[in-house]
Amino acid sequence: MLSKAQETDAARQALARLLPLAEEAARRLGRRAVLMEVCGTHTMAIARSGIKSLLAGSLDLRSGPGCPVCVTEQRDIDKIIAMAGQPGVVIATFGDMLRVPGTKTSLEVERARGARVEIFYSPMEAVEFAARHPQKEVVFLGVGFETTTPALALSIAAAKSRGLTNYSVFSVHKLVPPVMRALLSDPDLNIDGLLLPGHVCTITGRKAFDFVSAEYRAPAVVAGFEPVDILEAIYALLKQITAGQARTLNGYARLVREEGNRKAKEIMAEIFEPTGAAWRGFGEIAQSGLTIRKSYADYDAAVRFPVEVPEALPPKGCACGEVLKGKITADKCKLFGRVCTPSSPVGPCMVSLEGACAAYYQYERHEV
Amino acid sequence: MANRDKDDLILLAHGDGGLLTHQLLQVYFLRYFNNELLAQMTDAAVFQVEAGQMAISTDSFVVNPIFFPGGDIGKLAVCGTVNDLAVSGAQPLYLTASFIIEEGFSLGSMEKIVASIAQTCREADVRIIAGDTKVVGRGQTDKVFITTTGVGYLLPGVNLGYQRLEPGDKVLVNGCLGNHGLSILLQRESLGLESQVVSDCAPLNGMIKKILSRFPGVKFMRDLTRGGLATNAKEIALSARVDFWLNETALPVEEGVRGITNLLGLDPLYLANEGKFLMVVAAAEADALLKYLQEELSAAESAIIGELRSGEGNVFMKTALGGTRRLDMMAGTPLPRIC
Q: Which of A103, B53, B72, B273 is deepest in the core (most CB within 10 A)?
């Protein structure tokens, strides 16, 4: 492992190599190259480390649909909130979901009104919690991509083997490859290269994203999360762009394998099956979500607590969809920074720490 | 006697002004807070003041859990108010302490908290000279809430304020950031993380008095509680109409705190501290002040973290990579991220 100082040195060197290449790509394209980081953790790391500010002159970095909170449909959020209102139900969640606004209210507000919401770092902790509180119904919010799904699958397997009858999962899990297809099929898309989500790829494997370059002719690099990882991946993308190539490369080989994590994929397939899912900003995408298999229906909160909520329209003016497709930067949304701020978010992109709008608001606004 | 049996509970009758209230006062408060002003047991404590300016500050403490690594609600209730006075340039003298206790709270825990308050008062050289106790029904409060008010006198010759801040001044902190907020978060949320993160909760008045008597170039101080360094720096920047320029590589953060905050997607710059101050000092005195903090005051992790430049109220951070990042006020409670 490198020390912090060695890592910073390596990142500085990568930056020095990268800048002339970015200039070359800009000359070639007649404009700054547009790169999309698909993953929200990348968005955050790029803003925090100052990479965005360092590259702004020569590269246009955009955020993609890789923040799970941001792509959760308003209707699903409304369902979660309705579930929180059922007697005896304890909503178990990762922190980000708390403040996401539904049509009328949020979990944070419902908690103030008396709903019980517990924050867990690991779904296994929620299983323990359910075992300790047999009189409560623990509903874990399964919001996330391939990265978090195996942990939810394991929690269901654990609840089953322990004979718990008061633990279930509300699955709005989503899969990254199908949304990438939807994104890349958009004729208006103007992206010169993609930073692929390193954490997701540790599960899926690099090969799962070969189609990006093979079918859509887009250069792509699997990227890690340290500044040096991100800069090296951008460098590898620019190399491809300037050479006119399109390949799906692995820039995170210390964790990402060709085939991914077999065990994780097996447990996911045991508990979940692909289904159509609605994505905020994208609409319905076939085979892009994961639902709990019938054989595990006892652990499916959607079966155990069927809640009906009316069709929900996204808030008027909210351009989350355009932002998530990389078509506009967050500040071009009419609501941004005026109606929609981190303290009173209109869309989920402003709530999540990793949301494109929140990151932009936090790190890139120029006015005081 | 009741205090020997740690399983004994606070009853509503402990707050009704009768015999049990009297026992609570005698056995806990008077015994631990023992001083002649409190012992008079009058409706108001009466004390002499010196000529000059006085300072007063009040704060309520509702921390959950009430016991945490590095402290407890009692220690916090003393440190919080003492530090508010200290960073204002005042030497705290006396505190009042008011308790709202939930029916059924353990007397053993109550005694631990009272003992901790007494111990922290000795460390901070302050006395509790007035107090109050109320007991409310189960569920009407959470275990125990404490309000402390502190009075002190302004240290002679000290002149602190936004108006003194100017471009070129240096910004210091007296140690590692984020410990208190993270230690509480790790206790409170069921995160399932074993951790050695200890709250930095400590009275700062002794340290600050020594600094102020030696360094007239100290222009402003703020204790970095809720909102952490980033939010507090932003508030100061807006009030003083200057820009802060901080250096990421200079910010002291413990390795353990850095690791866990990375994992959870939190930023130590937004986490609360309870024993840390930000100090703005004239550039000419900055190095000497840093040396004094590190060598004479045992604050080895103290650091010069940046400087002021002319501006309109921004806080900028130079990242390790050489980029720039803007820091804004915290929005909402810091929570673990989703993936």
A: B273
